[in-house]
């Protein structure tokens, strides 16, 4: 019996995270069934399409719908800030001017961090997979999930799979991946409901904060949506230290 016709495949950068160890960082041959679309071929090998930015077939950039013929050489790249490619060559979408997110149920602590940095981030503990995909598509939000199957849904355009299970490490990943450092607006969004924060006069919130807080503080913020009140306590000091560390990422190669 003759072997099935194959294609030569090579993944670069963070796309290797989705491959078995023996295929990482090297070219390999994959048996081909028919002439699949590039998107289907790539996802059958592991990486979800939102993590792919450029695909070359036999040295030429193609889109996700391109059909792969036997004998072809397929190369896929993740988003690289230094990758010199014209926009038309990319399968990934252009960066958002103001990134917005929607997160799955398992990333409840990460959503708090992103809101603390000022990013519009949707999260509920009962979002179904189809709801996540729909919100990501309809509202042009970056879907953050550790469910690769959700990222592979066709309607998802922007997305990322946090590699770490630690929320603080996940935050560093997301900040680096989407270049968030210069766009952070710390303490401008409600941690509880995602609403915008506005300045509040002490007399206007006095009956909604502990008496000792009202005595010690003169500057307050409140959520325009849920009316939750915030002030610069020890918790905010710890968060400010985290913000300062994230800003240092700009100076790390």
Key traits:
253 residues; alpha/beta; five-stranded mixed beta sheet; four-stranded parallel beta sheet; 12 strands; 26% helix; 16% strand; elongated
Q: Roughly how much helix do the residues carry, as a percent range?
A: 25-40%
Give the percentage of residues in beta strands: 15-25%
Number of E strands: 12
Radius of gyration: 22 Å
Placed side by side, the strands forming the largest sheet appear as 2-1-5-3-4
Note the total helix count: 8
Instruction: Kindly name the structural category.
Output: alpha/beta
Short structural description:
This protein has helices spanning 38-45, 108-116, 129-138, 148-151, 167-177, 202-205, 211-216, 234-247, and strands at residues 6-11, 28-31, 54-57, 60-61, 73-77, 101-103, 121-122, 142-144, 159-160, 197-200, 220-223, 229-230. It has 253 residues and is of the alpha/beta class.
Walk me through what this model shows:
The chain has 253 residues and is of the alpha/beta class. It is built from eight helices and twelve strands. The protein has a five-stranded mixed beta sheet with strand order 2-1-5-3-4, with no helix packed on it. Strands 7-6-8-9 form a four-stranded parallel beta sheet, with helices on both faces.
Topology:
Elements: E1 6-11, E2 28-31, H1 38-45, E3 54-57, E4 60-61, E5 73-77, E6 101-103, H2 108-116, E7 121-122, H3 129-138, E8 142-144, H4 148-151, E9 159-160, H5 167-177, E10 197-200, H6 202-205, H7 211-216, E11 220-223, E12 229-230, H8 234-247
Parallel strand pairs: 1-5, 6-7, 6-8, 8-9
Antiparallel strand pairs: 1-2, 3-4, 3-5, 10-11, 11-12
Helix pairs in contact: 2-5
């Amino acid at each position: 019996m003759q072997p099935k016709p194959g294609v030569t495949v090579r993944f670069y950068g963070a796309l290797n995270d989705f491959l078995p160890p023996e295929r990482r960082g090297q070219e390999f041959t994959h048996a081909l069934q028919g002439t699949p679309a590039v998107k289907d071929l790539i996802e059958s090998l592991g990486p979800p399409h939102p993590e792919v930015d450029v695909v070359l077939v036999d040295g030429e950039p193609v889109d996700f719908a391109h059909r792969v013929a036997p004998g072809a050489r397929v190369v896929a790249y993740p988003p690289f800030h230094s990758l010199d490619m014209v926009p038309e060559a990319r399968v990934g979408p252009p960066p958002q001017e103001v990134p917005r997110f929607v997160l799955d149920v398992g990333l409840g602590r990460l959503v708090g961090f992103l809101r603390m940095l000022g990013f519009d981030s949707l999260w509920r503990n009962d979002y179904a997979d189809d709801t996540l995909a729909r919100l990501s598509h309809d509202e042009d939000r970056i879907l953050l999930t550790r469910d690769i199957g959700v990222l592979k849904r066709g309607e998802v355009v922007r997305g990322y799979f946090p590699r770490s299970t630690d929320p603080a490490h996940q935050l560093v990943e997301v900040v680096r991946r989407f270049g968030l450092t210069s766009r952070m607006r710390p303490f401008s969004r409600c941690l509880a409901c995602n609403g915008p924060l506005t300045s509040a006069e002490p007399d206007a919130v006095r009956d909604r904060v502990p008496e000792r807080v009202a005595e010690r503080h003169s500057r307050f913020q409140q959520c325009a949506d849920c009316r939750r009140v915030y002030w610069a306590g020890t918790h905010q000091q710890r968060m400010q230290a985290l913000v300062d560390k994230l800003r240092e990422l700009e100076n790390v190669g």
